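Late entry, evening session. Most of the bench is empty. Finally got around to the prediction I had been postponing all week. Sequence below, unchanged from the version circulated by S.P.
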Amino acid sequence: MVYVIVGKKCSGKSTFKDYVKSNFDCVVFETSDYTKIIKETHQVKDMTVVLERFGYDYVMKQIAKKIDPTRLNVVSGARVSEGIDYLKNRFKDVCVVEIVATDKARYQRNLERNREDMKVGFDEFVTYCNEEDARLNKGRAIKSDVIIENNGTEQDFANKIKRLLDAPM
């Protein structure tokens, strides 16, 4: 089984990944780790250059090489619909899980992360996230199979993740 975790910046994708990694026997792939390696390999600062040259599914093609279809796999941080489509076509059991949270909750998490590149006001944060999603997906919405709301406590979110992974697919 392959779970592909999607969602806007600060929605809870990493929290989902970390919970699953700590509580289930699984293989976890973080798309940002692959993106960093690919950017270094191709000696570019902007990943768009690589995606436009090799295709918007390029990152997922690299991850797919390491997916073990006999195990539970979690791909966290997928942001490009073409990559998700590639995984769905390549593997039999793929579930796209969208993590959603209010803009207010996501902005609060952004402040808690205290990242230098994202020290912006609320409106600028929301605009940046919306523009980033539109740029990466060129207006195509990612089609999720399951939506998990993450506006409560971390324990509430963990309970939702556990129910999802314990449910028969």
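Two things to note before I forget:
The longest strand covers residues 94-100.
Strands lie at 2-7, 26-30, 72-76, 94-100, 146-149.
Will write this up properly tomorrow.
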